[in-house]
Specification:
- By secondary structure, the protein is α+β, with helices and mostly antiparallel strands.
- The protein is 39% helix and 12% strand.
- It has a 4-stranded antiparallel β-sheet.
- The N and C termini lie far apart (79 Å).
Amino acid sequence: MRDYLNKSGKIRVNSVLSVKSTQNMVRYVLNEVVIFQHHIDDNRSFKMFASQLCVSGLCKQAEICRVFGISKSSVIRNVKKLKKDGPEAFYKAPKRNGREGTVITKAVQKKAEEFLLLGWTQQIVAEKLSINVSTLAKAVKQGRIYSRPIYSRPKDSKKLEKGRGSRDKNSNLIGNADYNGTHARKIFF
């Protein structure tokens, strides 16, 4: 919608209704009177008000499709939503139709947390509990299973500067780069 309105600034929908875009706002004008406005990126308000225009008879669905370049099925779907649930239906969070998880039950969650807190890997825990590793990893990532191990290996506090090859720069091994960066000769005893 933003691109379409930026091209012309003012669009005439029919003989009484026009749409005007100024700065970042979209204004709907009925006989020179602004009847509604919303931000140019607010798609929820656009869908709601375009549906209200159709339901109230101020314009036809085909005019909305032509002026804003949206599909007829979208307009029909939004008009149906407005008639059924009212304007607040456009601002509600979408309802999840999925079912609750059945693999990670309370018992499995408790056992998995016990094993993970002992320091076991997710792979081993998943095998032990006969569940998929990705299911366990997803539950850990979502925070449904607490997995911070009690015993963890401390990380090195200082990073080694890498020199030539995979050895660190300060190692003075014969056969690799010495501390000056020059190549030394290999000596065998």
